[in-house]
Amino acid sequence: MKIDTPLKPIIKPSTIELPNAYEAEKALLSALFLDNSKIGQALEYITHEHFYDKRNALIFKSMLSLYSQGIAFDHIIIANHLGSQLETIGGMDYLIEVTEYLPNVSNITYYAKIIYQKSILRELIFASQEITDNCYADTLNTEEILNLAEKKIFNISTKKTESYKSLNDIGDEIRDLIQNLKQRDTVVTGLPTGFIDIDKLLNGFQRSDLIILAARPSMGKTAFAVNIATNMATRGNFSVGIFSLEMTYRQIAMRILSSMSDIAFYKIKSGKLSTKEWDLIVKTIDQTRNMRIYIDDSSLITSLDIRTKARKLKIERNIDFLIIDYLQLIEGLKRENRVQEVSEISRSLKILAKELNIPILALSQLNRGVEQRDNKRPMMSDLRESGSIEQDADIVMFIYRDDVYNKKSQTNEERTTAEINIAKHRNGPTGTIQLLFHKDTTTFKNLTDKQELDVFYKNYVSEHEEF
């Protein structure tokens, strides 16, 4: 069959009324006339913007204004407060109609939820119409439209009734938080990395932070990131996402097993294990079953793919922390050069960290320029050829192991020393931390003894809810 004209989407005609909760709106207002103090319960779910009927929105807004001033209200007080807007809502007749609705005051929360849910449905309709319009307009490319669509739906699904807080609102909250922190034994206010000297310096990884972990190949970037993930999942029972663009999920899982069991990675990979080692592996696997680490090794090629999967993980698994390995393997929007693309990617990751309200650790590979100088320790200037990574990051960490370059440092010892240089810390001090690196298990470990670690982190599991 020949089609002469392009197919158009089936759109509901404008004569069909949008989803609404007209009866619930009237019931809620009437209940608030009966008991002004219940307005706080309603505010947990809605503001005046969630009302479909503009008359009801004006009444609710007036109620809130009076209540915030400590003024009790009834329909006469509301009428006086509305002033010239009284006629807009239908005059005193409509106010009396609302007061005579006779709802059940105990159902206020239920009414508010219905109003909120219908408001969400309307927002979805408006968002879908905007997405449709963009598809027809042909002014944005496909990736931009997909990102816009995802962001709109994600924002609707996680929307809160309040987008701002005044200092007056948060003063008591901050005071209580600081007092609580003051009384605690631990100094970690964010997510613990499990490396005591790093946690002392950074206070853990904080919400919405973008952390860059940079090094030359073979320094142990992935190993260090996986160690942090393991520490978070075991010490704090945090939910961690790992997006691996380089290694498979099996390789990462084997690294975790090697680290936790202290059995050499090459033995696990080859399967050449003694009976004792095999029993230990089985025991360790059982220990990992309750660890909330989620690995995605699929072809996450573009920054859009990263954002899509991250939002999905946040909704489905409520991840507290995300690792991306590694930044230079991500494709951005096609720009004039790769530096601009990397800049766009790092900015998008910072925005994503803020959007999901979690710290994101992005691994970054440094170029060969590091090896052209005598002192091969990475510096901040080594990042400047990688776009705006340095500016976008809240924390920048470099890994350096002297044994990789210096033959005098190379020994047959399984353990070597590693330096973690915290070169940028937007909200605090910087410095270099010494760790042990176990080559056989590709594991970074503290120089501190276990007893001190246990004391330092002892209260963390029960007290990390502030994060």
From TrEMBL:
Annotated ranges, domain SF4 helicase: 184-451
A GO-annotated cellular component: cytosol
Catalytic activity: ATP + H2O = ADP + phosphate + H(+)
InterPro entries assigned: DNA_heli_DnaB-like_N_sf, DNA_helicase_DnaB, DNA_helicase_DnaB-like_C, DNA_helicase_DnaB-like_N, DNA_helicase_N/primase_C, P-loop_NTPase
Enzyme class: isomerase
Pfam families: DnaB (PF00772), DnaB_C (PF03796)
Keywords linked to the UniProt accession: ATP-binding, DNA replication, DNA-binding, Helicase, Hydrolase, Isomerase, Nucleotide-binding, Primosome
GO process annotations (BP): DNA replication, synthesis of primer
UniProt EC number: 5.6.2.3
Known role: The main replicative DNA helicase, it participates in initiation and elongation during chromosome replication. Travels ahead of the DNA replisome, separating dsDNA into templates for DNA synthesis. A processive ATP-dependent 5'-3' DNA helicase it has DNA-dependent ATPase activity.
Family: Belongs to the helicase family. DnaB subfamily.
PANTHER family assigned to the protein according to its UniProt record, in alphabetical order: REPLICATIVE DNA HELICASE, REPLICATIVE DNA HELICASE DNAB
Protein name: Replicative DNA helicase
Protein species of origin: Desulfurella amilsii
